[in-house]
Write a structure and sequence with these properties.
Radius of gyration: 18 Å
Strand order of the largest sheet: 8-7-6-9-10-13-12
Shape: globular
Number of strands: 13
Order of helices and strands: EEEEEHEHEHEEHEHEHEHHE
Largest sheet: 7 strands, mixed
Distance between the termini: 40 Å
Number of domains: 1
Oligomer: single chain
CATH architecture: 3-Layer(aba) Sandwich
Structural class: alpha/beta
CATH superfamily: Vaccinia Virus protein VP39
Length: 297
Amino acid sequence: MLLETITRCPICEGELFSTVLQCKDFTQSQEDFQIQKCNRCNFHLTNPRPDRSSIGKYYLSEDYISHTGTSRSIFDFIYLKARETALNWKKEIISKKKYPGTLLDFGSGTGEFLQSMSKAGWNVSGVEPSELARNKANQLLQATKVTETLHLASSTQDVITLWHVLEHLHDINSTMAKLKSVLKKDGLIFVAVPNLESADAYKYRQYWAAYDVPRHLWHFSKSTMKALLQKNGFKLEEIYPMRLDAYYVSLLSEKYRNNGYHNLLSPISAFLSGYQSNRKAKADNNYSSLVYLASHA
């Protein structure tokens, strides 16, 4: 494994970092990774981390369901059912802001979201680096709509979406710049990321499943996400809660906290944790995951 160390914050360019947690890769390698924070702007990151040539092996686990789309256990079944509900919700929040036009889903996985939007009248395209997921997406769409890299013309997209993708990208600033270049001047971008200031994040700490080291390279709060958008020429318009995430993340976190196993009380504990997290978030909007809607600044 080749590790690289971040020496400059991608948001504020600060050069001093402090370690705040040590987390285990519960999904694949069982290796330990540090989560550090920038001492200037409080942005959190996995540091050091696998470089681009090494990160791929951490996605090879059969448990990494977002790349397989298959259900092998009751918990995968819950995930897939929750995803069906989330697809309708995503379509709804986009449709309230834009009429059907061009839509790019960056990090489109196995293509279910693109299929849903295509059926709703959108001209869709996607980017997905995983060959397995990309092939499944194109089979689902019955056309080559999803490519390995971004190669769209400038100012062509009405909507761009990143559903739990930004935290996986090695160079977030260059990616945001590329996405801005293909977004129309009146276009909108929707970015979903986990929120490290949620109540479930505080409860589970190093066992919080949404840290997902080392696949998650960056860990966002509302303030650091807003700062990243501003740095890259976007204006934050709205923030939407992803309430279902608190339940699924809590369910996985319970498993990690119990040495990789679920006991009879795990589903009950996870449900209560998710409920309490969402209830607390009503006061400050610190839900387990958030969707940031932004436009050209």
